[in-house]
Amino acid sequence: MNRSELINAMSENTGFWDVIIVGGGATGLGAAVEASSRGYKTLLLEQHDFSKGTSSRSTKLVHGGVRYLQQGNVSLVLEALRERGLLINNAPHLVRNQSFIVPNYEWWGGPFYGVGLKVYDMLAGKLGLGPSKMLSREETLKHIPTLEPHGLKGGVIYYDGQFDDSRLAVNLAQTAHDLGGSPINYMKVTGLLKGKGMTQGVQATDMLDGTEYEINGRVVINATGVFTDDIIKMDNEDAKPMIAASQGVHIILDKEFLPGNSAIMVPQTDDGRVLFAVPWHDKVVVGTTDTPVEKATLEPEALDEEVEFILTHAARYMTKDPTAEDVKSVFAGLRPLVKAGGDGKNTAAISRDHTLLVSESGLVTITGGKWTTYRKMGQDTIDQAATVAGLEDRDSITENMRIHGWLKNVDKTDPLHNYGSDAPSIRKIGKDDPAMKEQLDEALPHIKAEVVWAARREMAMTVEDVLSRRTRALLLDAKASIRMAPEVARILAQEHGYDKKWQKQQVETYTDLANRYIVRQK
User: Fold this and answer.
1) How confident is the model over 239-266, as pLDDT tens digits?
2) Collapsed DSSP state (helix, strand, coil) of residue 58
3) Residue 300, CA atoms < 13 Å, CB-side half-sphere
């Protein structure tokens, strides 16, 4: 993928795109892959970088949703379990089978969750990842030796999926591109084009050079997550807000807090959410919170009380109590929850199912949902969009379609395993220039060749793109990522033809951002 080439092709196209998608997160990218795979002429525009918002800030799980089963939403669980199974087959380099332990500290907990998880297994059917089973106290501690032993009665083990969210987003953009689609980042939609009361395209501004465009499309899809209402207002300024944003915060700890391969799942915290502690890139992700947010922003920040909430709950289940000093990074993401009447204040109770709407002008809006069901959301959206646009009816082929980078049986100990089939090309960069084999910082395994690859093939335009989403350095160790920034800026400048002034500005901008991922000491 080359951004300049895609923009040139877009500006030279004087006709209509079959499908224009606004938003480059999980939902928009899923729709872009779906539309491109059906042979529709597809353009995706993202105001910042692919998965800049919610889609790079998840709990890193591809899951059926045990809590939805608890709420009685069996249809959502069935759909999610099926999509989980498909995604593990379609992107095995990024998605893996993860064992989870539900620790029981109450006499009734074992049987209660044991029965519930057997239902979970049954619903997964042939796409199940392994049978759940009851564990004794000794077996539970063998799986997780750092689990708080005081009062522990036993546990239940079950299996779900774990993945790297922003790496999947990049691979989806590449997949859409491989199929003939045009995904473009840093292209903000500023208005809708109308003709005879119908939506016929978009106005967009290149956020890197300020160039403005008017782009015609047979149908426009609003897949902007927490910014859904902004696009709806462009279509109808009198429309009532439909999104209740909820902030979820996660912290990253060193592996010593959760050695071994199993994750912890606590079914109910004080705010009614599930708490997870999950192994990820040789660290541990712990979260999440559920805090209603008034206004959506591209860079939400964790509140002190949210971090304290997670640390307090983690301490209840770990022998070594984590403190603010132990947090390598903290990140916040906003969930786009669809209001179902009421005021949207109790976001923990709002359904995570997705919502698909078509306005009077033909604007198609898809919102809600979660990463696990991104493919099905894309399929539903393009089915509807094709009808609105009067496109030739074509069946979906994405259920068993391999995602860019597909590679079976990757070596999880290889630092480049997340690149799948692209890893040899990154190694060749290092072979051609041995300096590119060097690590960017001793605290993390990322090498300089990854920056070159990100610039040349993954449309990374800024230091943040590389350190937050092409690699996960910002989330894994914010301080280490700040140390990496100058060299990343130097390599990017060399690849994109920028000067030293750009490098300096990039390092300053990134450092300011990364400092917000470091927990403030009291």
Assistant:
1) 999 998 999 999 999 999 999 899 999 8
2) coil
3) 29
Give the span between the Cα atoms of 291 and 245, in whole angstroms.
9
**Residue 105 burial (CB count, 10 A):** 15
In this model, does residue 345 exceed pLDDT 70?
no
- Kind of pairing, strands 275-280 and 220-222? unpaired
Q: Is the pLDDT of residue 342 over 50?
A: no
Query: b/e per residue, 218-248, with b = 16+ CB within 10 A?
Result: bbbbbbbbbbbbbbbebbeeeeeebbbbbbb
In the numeric block, the tokens 């109790």 are attached to 346
User: pLDDT tens digits for 275-314?
Assistant: 899 999 999 999 988 889 989 999 999 999 999 999 999 9
Strand-pair partners of 285: 252, 278
Q: What is the pTM of this model?
A: 0.94
> Which of 504, 487, 506, 496 is CA-nearest to residue 442?
487
Q: Which domains, ranges and CATH numbers included, belong to the chain?
A: 3-54+167-242+347-389 (3.50.50.60), 64-162+244-338 (3.30.9.10), 417-515 (1.10.8.870)
Contact 25, 225 (CB under 8 A): yes
How many Å apart are CA 36 and CA 75, to the nearest integer?
28
In order of 87, 263, 353, 453, the CA distances from 162 in angstroms are 11, 10, 20, 25
Residue 114: what pLDDT? 74
Question: Around Cβ 80, how many Cβ atoms within 10 Å?
Answer: 28
DSSP 8-state symbol, 152: -
Is the confidence at residue 109, as pLDDT, over 70? no
Q: Which of these, 455, 469, 467, 452, lies nearest to 514 by C-alpha position?
A: 467
The total number of residues written for the chain in this structure: 522
- The Cα–Cα gap between 39 and 387 comes to 15
Cα–Cα nearest to 158, from 123, 182, 106, 188:
123
* The residue type at 298: L
Residues 26, 35: Cα–Cα separation, whole Å:
14
